[in-house]
Design goal:
The chain is of the alpha/beta class and about 230 residues long. It has a single domain, classed as Rossmann fold (3-Layer(aba) Sandwich), CATH 3.40.50. It is about 40% helix and about 20% strand. It has a seven-stranded mixed β-sheet. A hairpin with a 2-residue loop joins strand 6 and strand 7. It is globular and about 55 Å long.
Length: about 230
């Protein structure tokens, strides 16, 4: 596996897996701006293109905006959001409740490497901007494998530290240079993976292999749980 550089390993060590209060208040507010909301829409569209119905788990759901976009794109999905931060779970529940969906979308507290979910309980597992926070990504990915139904997919989206120039230029045309510059600087103050590091996470896991591609400015690691032959 391609290892993270020492500075990024150090960042990963000290960076919290769940955003504590009052960081949740700041993140909840910032994530309402256009570039965040547009990315949630792009991710929701990408997810629904692969799974329009069934049970979906969003790990590291944050303020829950993706949950709302997913419900709007496909109301037949049974959606559960999960976050390591109790304060973020509270924020997500408030946003879901404000949208009138408290009885439709579930939000729970839990860590990626010990998901409080039964084996083979989800048709699709997703995560956006979360995997770089996971303290033990291999255990987290293996937990994703455990809770997926055979034939199910995992779509793990994140910023990478080496986003291609053409991807950044496309984002600049849509959102403007300043907002994309803030995104680029963000990639240096958090322990984000490179494209190669992100792809390499699949190899030692129960998935064995995965593919990466870009959805907007986010790099998506796609994993599939193979159905056992009978």
């Amino acid at each position: 596996m391609n290892k993270l550089s020492f500075p990024r390993r150090l960042l990963k060590l000290i960076h919290p897996e769940g955003i504590p209060w009052p960081g949740t208040v700041v993140y909840n507010k910032i994530s309402t701006i256009q570039i965040f909301q547009r990315n949630y829409e792009l991710v929701a569209k990408d997810i629904v293109a692969r799974c329009r119905r069934g049970d979906l788990l969003d790990i590291g759901t944050g303020p829950g905006w993706l949950l709302l976009k997913l419900h709007a794109a496909s109301p037949s999905l049974h959606i559960t959001g999960m976050d390591a931060s109790p304060a973020m779970v509270t924020a997500a529940r408030q946003n879901v409740s404000a949208a009138g969906l408290a009885n439709v979308i579930k939000v729970e507290q839990g860590y990626a490497n010990r998901l409080p979910c039964a084996d083979e309980s989800f048709d699709i597992v997703v995560s956006t901007g979360s995997i770089h926070h996971w303290k033990d990504p291999l255990s987290g990915i293996n937990e994703v494998h455990r809770v997926l139904k055979p034939g199910g997919q995992a779509l793990l989206y994140d910023i990478v530290s080496d986003t291609p120039r053409e991807v950044m230029q496309a984002a600049q045309r849509e959102f403007g240079r300043f907002k994309v510059l803030m995104l680029w600087l963000h990639a240096f103050e958090e322990p984000f993976y490179s494209q190669r590091n992100l792809a390499a996470l699949a190899q030692p896991s129960l998935f064995k292999e995965g593919q990466t591609r870009f959805v907007g400015v986010l790099c998506c690691l796609t994993l599939k749980k193979v159905e056992e032959k009978r």
